[in-house]
Predict the structure.
Amino acid sequence: MVTFLPSRPGRLADVPSFGRTIGGAESNVACALALAGHGAKWVSRVGADGFGTHLIEAIGAYGVDVTDVVRDPERPTGVYFRTADDRDDATHEVAYYRAGSAASAMSPDTVARSALFGGRVLHLSGITAALSADCLALMRELCAAGEGRPLLSFDVNHRPGLWSSPADGGPVLLELARGADIVFVGEDEAAAAWGVRGGPRAVREALPEPDLLVVKRGAAGATVFAGGEAHSVPAPTVEVVAPVGAGDAFAAGFLSATLRGLDVPLRLRHGHLTAAAALTVPGDVAEVPARELADTLAALDADAWERLRLGPGWTGAGAHVEVRTA
């Protein structure tokens, strides 16, 4: 969907103007993967309007295949506005205008399996399940084990404001997550959606089915459960410009490392690095670090990794990356 970013901090009622950009969990992941050198396809529906044209052109400009995006002549492209504050801040506001949007018309009958099952990984988001009953039916069908299904990645992305009742989302998201191969969920999301508290281990006990369960802990880092093993990696210190899009970037970095066959702990480090790229820009999609730079940083010893400090522009050519001295 089209995202409108505020020109200054403050309440939506007080912000005088907004800048237009792109947003959306799945498209953010697709853009980051394409920037990282992978083949990526975005499958969705947009309106036959100017905003739909903007999305297709902007996402395609990142190198994403958009040939299976359908233009809906009857429904508009979804849009949303947000304030500049952190989503976890009490002052953060989001105004969604996506009821009846083109994307909400996705269903088992309108999305071709050939478009979804042609890659090595299919990445889905819990946001899509909240858009309509048809979208939920599609998500349930995709999250059910079936012949020919690629590795299924699912980001819980609990957004209470998208559900008709805040209590509706939790059980549905847990049901969908149980059918995935890789699941991304924030520790805070697990508490809000499922009432699960007590750290990553408690989340794993509530969700034992996925082969890989990634529990994100914000600035504290992340823990991945792979079979009977658990690996935790702290996040590097980041000078945050805007927090939106970091979760999608983390998923993209982790999936990129997964596609490359890297060890599980290194996948977490690549997730953190790609998230740091998103955290240091105002929009949802950032320039990802070059593979050579990311591999070098991911290979730091534990002490150097914990002293890593990343600020705006750190992914650019010739940028300086600081490893603080003790």
